[in-house]
Amino acid sequence: MTIEWIKYTPGSVELRLDGKLDTVSAPAALSELQQAAQEYQNLILNFEKVPYISSAGLRTLLTVQKQVKHTGGTLTITSITPTVMEVLELTGFSSILTIV
Amino acid sequence: MRSKNAPHSIFTENEQEANRYAARCMRVMSLVALAAWLMNIVGFFIVPPKAMNAGMGLCIFFFLLPTAVCRWMSTEKRWVKYFFILCCVLGITIASVAIPKHTILVWAAPIILSCHYYSKELTASTLAASVVCLILSGIAGMFVGEGDPNLMGAFPTSEAILTPALFRKAVLFFLLPRSGILLGMSFICATVASRTHELLEKQSHDAFVRQRMETELSVASSIQSSMLPSHFPAHPEFDIFASMTPAKEVGGDFYDFYLLDDDHLCITVADVSDKGVGAALFMSRCMTLLKTQMLSLRRPHLVMAAVNDELCQNNDEMFVTAWLGVLELSTGKLEFANAGHERPLLRSGGVFHYLEQKPGFVLGGLEGIVYEPHSLTLQKGDAIFQYTDGVTEAGEETYFGTARLQETLNQNAALSPRELLPAVEQAVYAFTAHGERSDDITMLCLAYQGGKNMNELNVLAVLDNLELVMGFVEEKLEHYGCPPAPQMQVALAVEEIFVNIANYAYSPDVGPASIEVEVHEEPLEVVITFMDKGKPYDPLAAHDPDITLPLNERAEGGLGIFLVKKTMDDVQYEYKDGRNILRIIKRL
Questions:
Q1: With contact defined as beta carbons under 8 Å apart, do B291 and B258 qualify?
Q2: What is the 3-state secondary structure (H, E, C) of B229-288?
Q3: What dihedral do alpha carbons B476, B480, B486, B490 form, nearest 10°?
Q4: Where are the alpha helices (DSSP H) in chain A?
Q5: CB contact under 8 A, A83 and B495
Q6: Using the beta-carbon criterion (under 8 Å), do B554 and A69 form an inter-chain contact?
């Protein structure tokens, strides 16, 4: 998985994730997202190129979401694919994440 | 191709031996001459001292010349024997000039000596030289030396006056008849020489031919052995070992094994009815035919029938018994046919017993025989042991026998083929401790280690192997044409379960896990079974996480199995034989 920092506005950053967010890629993704959350209040995660997410990926999102909320920022997920959306819905994550 | 060197070498050898013998004889003769000389000096003999001193000195010199030659020169040259005999003749000539009446019988010596060379030419030459020297010495003896009363009978020796008439009489009535006796003797000697020569020649040629035959047999034997496969490759599905210990004579036993393709192994054990080079040639023909036909027909009983018909062409003398098996490695199915061969033993459940199926007729005996196909399925750990009658018929009065073979195998049932065969051979040797083995001992053992399940992956349950597992499952699903959406769900479930096993099953140690992918038809579904030997743990027993809780109350654990349960149509868990077995089913 690669993460591309593409758009910066004051206090916000858009990150484009590319690849599977699974057990293998989750730890690295988590540390990079946490770093972004430290530098910017609001994170926008572009999930257009994430075809697959497993529970490890869900935990990553949960951790980052908690961290962002703690600092009073927002985490928005955009361009989500149906497969990933299905997983988020099945696990109730769709209700705790901001998905547009 | 007959070598001319072989018979000759034996004569060269004999010639040298005869040379040494002749030299020895002449040494003895020189001692006798010396004794006569000394006795004359002390006055025991009354030969004129002048003649005696010169004659005996010269005579001893000639008699000792061959000894000197033997001592300081090579005696390999062919002329040496002529020289030795000549020395002998000259020595006797000198002696008989000095003391003619005492040396008459000695004239036989050179001719008899020449016999030892087995050469007619030499004996004839000796005769010629002897006759000439006999006459010359006889004549010379009339003038010098002691004189011969036979020649000079009419006169007292000391006063002899040689008249022409007397000379003629001496030559005609004494020297010529003596020469005649020598001639007659030499005929006998020449016959002895030539007959012995012929005999030796024949014997040495026979020995040469025999040695050649033996060499050819041993070459045939080693070629035969080299035809048999001697490399026993390690293979995940089977373990094979075979051995052929030839008896003294070249026999016709053989074994063979080869892969027909990735999934089929052919094994053969056979025994030609005869022995010798002919049997070895027949064996190589059988071996080639069996393999050629097997590679095209692939069914043991059909191969037997085809090879039998082929062998019956232009063959009235030999036949072969053979056992042919084809093992399907993935399933353990063993197809076999038996043409008059011993029944093999099957190790099943750790116990060897003879297979029941009766053998068909031998190969090469009668055209048009139909062979019965037989089959059985080997389970993991089963083994087939096949042999030739050299094993069971070893022994003199009592045979090793089939019962003893079975007993020996069962005593060593736990051994691998590589260890089992030497153990059986040792038992056969121990049984025939004093008897010579009359037949080849051939054995082959094939142990089946279970089919490699193409749909099963065995890995160490660690996160590093996750990608390997995912790749394996995806490849299988794609192979079965699974649509993308369910494929993604199955992949998700596989990841969650494998990660669980890797993280918890053996924690803090690591251990193995196996993943089997099956696709069932009606209903069309994918079944994936995970097995590990870790701590018993039923993931289905855990409570599902509450997915309605607000963010702050959400726990991070339990999501994986929850996802599996949600996406799969069925998830089953059981703990059996020390293993956690988790099965997920996704209908397509």
A1: yes
A2: CCCCCCCCCEEEEEEEECCCCCCCEEEEEEEEECCEEEEEEEEECCCCHHHHHHHHHHHH
A3: -20
A4: 26-39, 55-70, 82-90
A5: no
A6: no
Question: What does the pLDDT look like over B65-74, one tens digit per residue?
Answer: 999 988 888 7
Over the stretch B503-533, which tens digit does the pLDDT of each residue have?
999 988 888 899 998 888 778 889 999 999 9
User: B-side interface with A, Cβ within 8 Å?
Assistant: 463, 466-467, 485, 488, 491-492, 495-496, 499, 545, 547-552, 554, 556, 559-560, 562-563, 566-567
The pLDDT, as a whole number, for residue B290 is 96
User: Complex ipTM, two decimals?
Assistant: 0.90
Interface probe for A, chosen from B553, B559, B561, B568 (most Cβ of A below 10 Å), is B559
Domain extent, residue A7, equals 2-99
What per-residue confidence (pLDDT) applies to A100? 86
pLDDT tens-digit map of B312-350: 987 778 899 999 999 998 888 999 999 999 999 999 988
- Cβ(B224)–Cβ(B270) below 8 Å: no
- Burial code (b: 16+ CB inside 10 Å, e: under 16) for B297-317 equals eebbbbbbbbbbebbbeeeee
Place of tokens 């996160």: B463
Say whether pLDDT at B6 is over 60: no
What is the tally of structural domains in chain A? 1
Q: Mind listing the pLDDT tens digit for each residue in B244-298?
A: 988 767 778 899 999 998 889 999 999 998 888 888 888 889 999 999 999 999 9
Spell out the domains of chain B, with CATH numbers in brackets.
5-207 (no CATH), 228-448 (3.60.40.10), 456-587 (3.30.565.10)
Name residues whose C-beta falls within 8 Å of residue B458's C-beta, 6 or more positions apart in sequence: B512, B513, B514
pLDDT of res. B8: 64
Measured torsion, CA atoms of residues B54, B58, B61, B62, in degrees rounded to the nearest 10: -160
A82: domain CATH number is: 3.30.750.24
Nearest CA to B307 among B322, B293, B318? B293
- Sheet (strand B441-448) strand order: B238-245, B441-448, B383-387, B345-348, B351-354
Answer yes or no: pTM beyond 0.95: no
Alpha carbon distance B291, B460 (integer Å):
41
Task: For residue B557, give how far its alpha carbon lies from the nearest alpha carbon of chain A (Å).
Answer: 8
